[in-house]
Amino acid sequence: MTGIDAEALAHRLIALADSKKAEDPVVLDMRELVAYTDFLAIVTARNERQARAIVDEVRLVVKRESGLLPGGVDGGGDAGWTILDYLDVVLHVFTPEARDRYQLEELWRDAPRLELALDEPEAPSAATG
Fold it and tell me: What is the C-alpha to C-alpha distance for residues 76 and 97, in angstroms, rounded to an integer?
């Protein structure tokens, strides 16, 4: 990879998806389970329009920041899911129905999950005067 390791890329993909209001982010560590990727990054978009916005943001920013393009893109349209395959990290963007149907977290329940540190909005201060 060009200047970014797989785990850092997984975190970056999730952060970019989060910036477009993706829900329920998960990163599964697949290094001990499969040979085709190191991490699966999974998010839910409320609908196809939001899914397209997430995918477009990820592709644009990752290309601009790292010069990386996905090795493959699948799904999209009315499929309810889109996959961006960055080889060492595969991002899955699902609608709620598709995420329930495919249940990747259940399929790969033995995969460790990465700790995600997404920025939480700050709660209003109770001590304002």
Answer: 14
